[in-house]
Amino acid sequence: MADVMNVGVNLEAFSQAISAIQALRSSVTRVFDSLKDGMKNKETLEGREKNFISEFQENLQAVNRDLNELERLSNLVGRPSESHPLHNSGLLSLDPVQDKTPLYSQLLQAYKWSNKLQYHAGLASSLLNQQSLKRSANQMGASAKRRPKVQPSALALPPQYVDDVISRICRMFPDMTIELSRPNGTSAVLLVTLGKVLKAILVMRSLFIDRTIVRGFNENVYSEDGKLDIWSKSNYQVFQKVTDHATTALLHYQLPQMPDVVVRSFMTWLRSYIKLFQTPCQRCGKFLQDGLPPTWRDFRTLEASHDTCRQ
Amino acid sequence: MGDLNSISLDCGRKPEHPEETHSDVGRTCELHVPVAEGKSVQQTVDLLHKKLEQLSAVKQGSFFVDCETYHAAGPTSGQPPKLLYVMHNSEMPLSCMAMFEGGPCLTADANFDVLMVKLKSHFQNAKGHKVESRGARYQYCDFLVKVGTITMSSSARGISVEVEYCPCVVPGDCWNLMKEFMQSFLGSNVPELPSVFTAKPEGLYAPADSTDTMTQYLELFSKVRKQQVVPGSTVR
Ligand SMILES: [Zn+2]
């Protein structure tokens, strides 16, 4: 019964209240039954009326009595929906099939988890707001207040400049080919082919890399209509993992005043995957961990290790 | 067990479906696994399945590879008759491979078999020489493993294991990685880098077709074909 007390329901009163409702309903039924039957045969008309009225009064009193009783009990029952933190869903704990369906405990877990998530998201957002390095246009505008002499905004570089930066990077890494295209207006999309290992699609906004997706060398990078497919993930777990790490790298390499350095650093980092299948983990010395080769590359040393070995 | 204990191994690359040859080339490696002392072929296969399942590999249906032998009929005075092998692989249900011994190799539509029947005045089917390998297909992460029982005239002759690491297109690059994987379920039976790779020019990068894989199966089958059936508990 501990659970019952927790949710603020007096079960005893609850069951009494249910019987009271039943009693009330039957007394109300009796009122209408007697009204329907009308006056019963008696010797005198007076006797008939008298009898009918007293019966009617008696029935109404019974209704009144039952209603009062119900009102009294309903105060005892308590108000579970407001006293419980989970509101009405807390009543799930009263479900007698609880033993078979772990719905209530799962609900509690989810509740805790979402609370935690909200808390951490709050912390993260307050931390991020203190950083001066911003990515999006709005935040760039906000930081401009602090640094009045911000460049005309690296987000509005002429396409020619972007082309030059990319072709210079391309010349730096002979084992990497970069194809630049502008399928949607001025923003460039890069298709980077690294040796015979992988292909990466980088969606740019000016010189900022907005999004990256990495696929196998033998996987399709074009969708059926012949356009670069910037959405579908790789079929291979190893490249899904590399995509995750590359996204992390995009967030790591940030230098808003020198976007070309950022692109170059990212490409240098990406290039370290050239020996993805040939390098053992620098931490544990093995090639495979859970069926995956060392997919992590340190941002500074470019050292290869398994995702699980890097901490 | 003489020949059964020797390992034959070859590697190649192959597409998963003939229609999309560039979508899923990988790198394969077949080997002939020795049957453990005092165990039957089936027991050894079961043992391999168990080991793979312990690795949490997921079973994904079955596979088969078969091979029929044809003798070239005709004026081959003095010389031994040339052999033609016709092979099928369940990975490529729409295709059929025809290979001359040591000679050219062609990939054809599956109804090539019908053509062979029409050509029986030139090529005679060597009945009883049909070899096939059938078994289960397992997926573990990006690896594809096929454990097959090699049978010839309905007697089990050995076990073939094909391992493919799908994300990598250059066989030599992921050899060490594959070796480590194979060690995890084959123990010490893992061979050295097969000579097929070192012999190949241009960084081991073969065209995206299945001929390499099938050539390896063919070599494996030839080995099995030559091997004597030894009476005893090890081979059934
Ligand atoms: Zn490791």
From TrEMBL, chain A:
Major localization class: nucleus
Superkingdom of this protein's organism: Eukaryota
Pfam families, A to Z: Med27 (PF11571)
Localisation: Nucleus
Family recorded in the similarity comment: Belongs to the Mediator complex subunit 27 family.
GO MF assignments: transcription coactivator activity
GO BP of this protein: regulation of transcription by RNA polymerase II; retinal cone cell development
Keyword list, A-Z: Nucleus, Transcription, Transcription regulation
A GO CC annotation given for this chain: mediator complex
Gene designation: MED27
Name of protein: Mediator complex subunit 27
Automatic annotation (TrEMBL), chain B:
Any one GO molecular-function label of the UniProt entry: transcription coactivator activity
UniProt key word Transcription: yes
Biased composition (Basic and acidic residues): 11-24
Entry's Gene Ontology BP terms: regulation of transcription by RNA polymerase II
Subunit and partners: Component of the Mediator complex.
Summary of the function given for this chain in its UniProt record: Component of the Mediator complex, a coactivator involved in the regulated transcription of nearly all RNA polymerase II-dependent genes. Mediator functions as a bridge to convey information from gene-specific regulatory proteins to the basal RNA polymerase II transcription machinery. Mediator is recruited to promoters by direct interactions with regulatory proteins and serves as a scaffold for the assembly of a functional preinitiation complex with RNA polymerase II and the general transcription factors.
Annotated protein name in UniProt: Mediator of RNA polymerase II transcription subunit 20
Organism: Scleropages formosus
